[in-house]
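Hi F.,

I've been meaning to write this up properly since the lab meeting, where we talked about keeping a consistent format for the predictions we share between groups. The idea is simple: the sequence comes first, exactly as it goes in, then the structure tokens exactly as they come out, then a line or two of notes. No screenshots and no reformatting. I'm using this chain as the first example so we have something concrete to point to.
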Amino acid sequence: MPRTAIRLAGLFLVLAVATLPSRLWADEPISIQQILEAPQAYHLRHVTLQGTVRDVQSLDPYTLPNGTNCYGAYVFRLEDDATTLSVAVLGICGKPLVRDPEVEDGAHVEVSATIQAPSHGGYYLSFRGLKMATEQESVVQAVADRILPIME
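Output, unedited:
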């Protein structure tokens, strides 16, 4: 087989794989209970969760430590079976805007998020806005980067 044909076949294969739906590459959903039982094992891991949205709350604009203002953040609780996990959707920083939450109470969703486990310090979004975590707090939070509705 000539080199040009091999290169074209390789390029075609790369393009075919790159255009597959991202859902095929998504992690299998894990339960919230798994995260709550071993939050340190999930700290800063990207996970996929499924559940029902509860208690959606838009947050006032908040200011990062560097002085940049962020707008349009919101939080909600994701419920699966009998457990819930706080989910934060970060604001868009540097651009004043109005953004309504992309979810509503009772919606069934799939959430791709990074888990933040307790005792690691740093900041997290609470129902009262941006807060700094302390060693005593046991806040486990998912920071969402994608939320998709689940059609039933």
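Notes:
The chain has one domain: 27-149.
Residues 108 and 151 are 8 Å apart (CA to CA).

If this format works for you, I'll send the rest the same way.

G.
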